[in-house]
Design brief:
By secondary structure, the protein is of the alpha/beta class. It contains nine helices and eleven strands.
């Protein structure tokens, strides 16, 4: 697209472009594609897999319009809707270490008493393992209920501490993801991994927008990385307002 600056704007999805696990608004889609994209290159970086990102972006038609989509922190790389590369946590860790992790996590979560528990407590993805004490099959109301309970009782924070202690020396990172889960991935396979895919593009600047930027959050590493200009946001509306203010996109 002619006339665009050689600058990349990368966005987290949950809490940044959408409410957690919900769909992006039509207004924000229009803003990103019709006002932001003509000015700069745009991309998504998420711990989720491509199917979940497509769902939250209202389908393939919207998702493919982003210049870059980095799924599972960039372990799966799409450019203009086409898969370019992928790596596997299974081949990296091996079955023995992977099963030790899963067995420990299931044992720990089985002892938790929460306001609700549903299904899909361990989700195996290409580039990471997602651990969810409430279960990813929970309803939106149950998700919100757990998020409030977690704020008060630090369920995930204590779980993360136990994982850090149990798997010290395994070279794994445990990061709070979204509202209800913990992402597990080899150290270095955080969201900064996606920056390897654009190292040869010569972007003058790479901006990153995310909400989980504090230590322990899954946006922290890329937000603080020296290769990016980090922007902490609190909601999709805040993301849009910051873009308007920075680029004068009214």
């Amino acid at each position: 697209m002619a006339g665009r600056k050689n600058v990349l704007y990368l966005f987290d999805v949950d809490g940044t472009l959408t409410k957690p696990r919900q769909k992006i608004s039509d207004d924000l889609i229009s803003f990103l594609l019709n006002k932001l994209k003509p000015r700069v290159y745009i991309g998504l970086v998420s711990g989720s897999d491509y199917s979940k990102i497509k769902e939250q972006m209202n389908g393939e038609d919207v998702t493919s319009k982003f210049d870059y989509v980095f799924c599972e922190n960039g372990l799966m790389q799409y450019r203009n809707g086409e898969l370019k590369s992928q790596q596997s946590i299974l081949s990296h860790l091996g079955e023995q270490k992977l099963q030790k992790l899963i067995n420990f996590a299931l044992g720990y979560m089985s002892k938790l008493e929460l306001p609700a528990k549903r299904g899909n407590f361990v989700e195996f993805r290409t580039g990471l393992i997602n651990l969810c004490p409430v279960g990813r099959s929970c309803s939106q109301a149950e998700r919100d209920q757990f998020a409030l309970y977690d704020q008060e009782h630090q369920v995930r924070g204590k779980f993360k501490e136990a994982l850090d202690k149990e798997f010290e020396g395994f070279n794994l990172t445990f990061a709070l993801g979204g509202q209800i889960s913990i992402d597990v991935f080899p150290t270095g396979w955080d969201k900064t991994f996606c920056l390897n895919h654009v190292a040869d593009t010569g972007f003058e600047e790479i901006h990153f927008f995310g909400d989980k930027t504090d230590p322990g959050g899954n946006d922290h590493e890329i937000y603080c990385d020296g290769r990016t200009i980090g922007h902490k946001v609190t909601s999709p509306d805040d993301t849009k307002n910051q873009l308007i203010a920075e680029l004068n996109l009214n």
